[in-house]
Amino acid sequence: MRISQTTEQISALRSLQDHCEIEGITLESCTVTRAKANATFLQPFSVKPQLSNVAFSHGGEHFVVEVSFEYAAWDSSEPPERIFCVNCTFEVCYRMQDGYVPTDAEKTLFSRGTAVFNCWPYAREFLRDITSRLGHQVPVLPLLRITPKKTEPPVEKLNPAPATVALPGNR
After folding, report:
1. Can you give the pLDDT of all 171 residues of the chain as single tens digits?
2. Are the C-beta atoms of 94 and 66 separated by less than 8 Å?
């Protein structure tokens, strides 16, 4: 899994990051389904983790982010058969310092960057535990990778101004 942000986006989230401390990370909700015990599957198997949702709320000195992940394991048959699916949401609570009030952009970028990064180890451990309880081989999930995002060119360069055309009656 990857988090990609531009240099400008990282600078924006850093301001919020410099004014908060993490208070706790808890499992907020989860749903788990698995195939029946007598099902047969074709190896090799693949696990596809993905970030499914990020939401935040800010009240007083608390900034709370909900980070949802989905893990689905599939076999190699055509079409692939789902072995199990885990959806989980973690709530990460931050305490704002010095009465700092972040901007909407800072909250959004922080939630999609730092908060996801903070939750990832908890999500990996949860999946490890729950798949073991489902009776499946424990999958090894990839590292969460932070990669630079290319800065997009300004809109004017993508869509040059249309040429002016004189229409009859518009002189």
Report:
1. 777 777 877 787 888 999 999 999 999 999 999 998 888 899 888 888 888 899 999 998 999 999 999 999 999 999 999 999 999 999 999 999 988 999 999 999 999 989 999 999 999 999 989 988 988 876 677 777 777 776 655 545 444 444 333 334 443
2. no
Cβ neighbour number for residue 92 with a 10 Å cutoff: 23
Instruction: Compute the C-alpha angle 87/91/94, nearest 5°.
Output: 155
Side-chain half-sphere of 146: how many Cα atoms within 13 Å? 13
* CATH code: domain of residue 11: 3.10.420.10
> Is 166 inside any structural domain?
no
List the domain range (segments joined by +) for residue 114: 2-158
Q: How many domains does the chain have?
A: 1
At residue 159, what is the residue type? N
At residue 80's C-alpha, the angle toward residues 73 and 136, to 5°, is: 30
45 vs 56: CA distance, rounded Å: 34
The helix/strand/coil state of 167 is: coil
Assigned domain for 74 exists: yes
